[in-house]
Amino acid sequence: MELLVLGGSLAAFRLLNAALERLVPPPPPAQRNRWKWRNICTSFVHSLLSGGGALLGFYLHPQMAEDLIDTHLPGAHRLLGVSVGYFLQDFIDMMCNQKLCECWELLCHHSVVIVCFSIAFLIHRFVGFATVALLVEINSVFLHLRTILRMAGLSHTSYYRVTSLVNLGTYMVFRISTLAWMTRWLVLNRESIPAATYVVSAVGLAIITPMNIVLFYRLLRNDYLRSSQHDKRQ
């Protein structure tokens, strides 16, 4: 059953990726990078599905928040499998369409996520903890929307400015704060976690957390620090 969910998700996102160019044609400014347009739109759909699904899971089954190790809804388990399928698809998509020097950070991120999520999905434990990690995708909705607006040549519009502000706000709440909370939870519950699972989770957080801090700085620099410096020169 687990392999069916993983394979079905990978195939579904692969088909979606192929169909998006017709469903959502790239605007003129994005014509020169049609692959990235499809890739970002696919990622946007996954973020809506996984981020919204994670919130809904905790709302419908608040007991999952009280026991992140053994308590979870069947739907939360399937959502985790769907996300693993997406990250596998995106990993393959980048390997086939980008140079390694251009995407090694994302490949590293995806590798960590695939390993950690797959363990929870296959052993049916720590699904709640992994679902907390999926709350990060709430921010990814606005992160991908920001990229879509930039690719469409709308980076000087009020829509982009609002999206950028919401992106930074949700980045702090659903990405930085979530990763910090997960690290704290992992340390406090050390005795309840098998050694191998603990090591994999700790290493994963140790890799992903600095990457997200660096990304936050890049977003702040690109959207605000550069524009402030430019205004001062005027």
TrEMBL record:
A Pfam family it matches: TRAM_LAG1_CLN8
Per UniProt, subcellular location reads as: Membrane
Listed under GO cellular component are: plasma membrane
Where's it mainly located?
membrane
Which residue ranges does UniProt annotate as crossing the membrane?
A: 129-147, 159-183, 195-220
Where the record annotates domain TLC, the positions are 32-228
Q: Which GO terms describe its biological process?
A: membrane assembly; phospholipid homeostasis; plasma membrane organization; regulation of membrane lipid distribution
- Does the record's keyword annotation contain Ribonucleoprotein? no
* Superkingdom, taxonomy of origin: Eukaryota
InterPro entries the record matches: TLC-dom, TLCD
Write down the membrane topology. Multi-pass membrane protein
Keywords of this entry: Membrane, Transmembrane, Transmembrane helix
Report what the protein is called. Answer: TLC domain-containing protein 2
**Which organism's genome codes for this protein?**
Eublepharis macularius
Q: Which gene encodes it?
A: TLCD2
